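Notebook, student rotation project (T.W.).
Task set for the rotation: take a protein with a known small-molecule partner, predict the structure of the complex, and write up what can be learned from the model alone. Partner molecule chosen: pyridoxal-5'-phosphate. Sequence and SMILES entered below by T.W., checked by me.
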Amino acid sequence: MLKRYLLAPGPTPVPSEALLAMAMPMIHHRAPDFLPVLDAAKKGLQWLYQTKNDVLILCSTGTGGMEGSVTNFFSPGDKAITINGGKFGERWTKICKAYNLNVDEIVVEWGHAVKPETVEEKLKKDSSIKGVFVQASETSTGVYHDIKALAQIVNKYENTILIVDAISALVAHDLRMDEWGIDVMIGGSQKGVMLPPGLAFVGISEKAWKSAESSKCPKFYFNFKKERENLAKNQTNFTSPVTLIIGLNECFRILQKEGLENIFRRHERLANATRKAMQAIGLDLYPKESPSNAVTAVCAPPGVDGQAIYKNLREKYGITAAGGQDHVKGKIFRIAHLGYADTFDVITAVAGVEMVLKGLGHPVRLGSGVAVAEELLLK
Ligand SMILES: *Cc1c(COP(=O)(O)O)cnc(C)c1O
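Predicted structure of the complex:
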């Protein structure tokens, strides 16, 4: 038998309470039973997003929320800045180009965070830029972009909106939609909110709704105006993903019991312990600055294949982490500490990495990382 541990940056483990809630008999999405269910989810999302704005619930993975955030606020030919510091930043560029936006891509070296001044300079030169697209946590590199600073800049421009892919950052990072002035913020169910894949969330500011009025991109399934009208009646435009929304409410019960501040503190604590433990093993962290609290990207030691580390973790010890993508495939591996994660998820991951490295013939003192993680996670 191989007991499984899911420590990937999505999908993440689902708490039993949510699994059990989702096992209840089906209810109809237009029947009165469903109205309070959607109402609770709506309120839970506003709590998590720290917003009074609408947060739409879409039946798709996170990328559907990203695509809808291009098609509902923009028109072909609109100028937009995309910040590409990894696989998911690149996805913004691809989606914008697919809908014929006029894309000015800021390429950020992998492992680094965007310099907010770069965005500011571009906006100063051209205030006709309609949108700035960025990730909060760039999952492929384990880097967090400074959303607060970017929001401060974009807020100065009346006709520019900031669109944040917070799919892996939500729950792991404090993202204050209203206070900071984030215009569009996207989440997904299989990351911090501890659910199976299948839901996308999109928080939308009044400023963004104004941009929506003139949007001419083609749209049908992801029609945010129609979703907003339906949301006001505790409905969704098409058949609601009823089961996942029931699970979402259960997860909100767990998260709200902990409280936002404690949730962010927990993620910071787990991320910090993971980073320090990896360094104690003698490994380098991949991010050169601003590491994410959702996922830790670690460099494979010279002579050791990063893919072998990730594969051995899974095959020998049942630990599903993640490898590297594109040009860092084989060079890094990634460990998530996101959502339903606590002390012994970190200890498990650190111990697993030590044992795998030893198995691959790399000199490592067993327990060196675990000891550091234990110290840092003592209560
Ligand atoms: C997981 C993830 C996505 C969305 O991926 P889906 O497979 O569509 O759910 C987008 N952006 C980031 C930063 C992610 O981590």
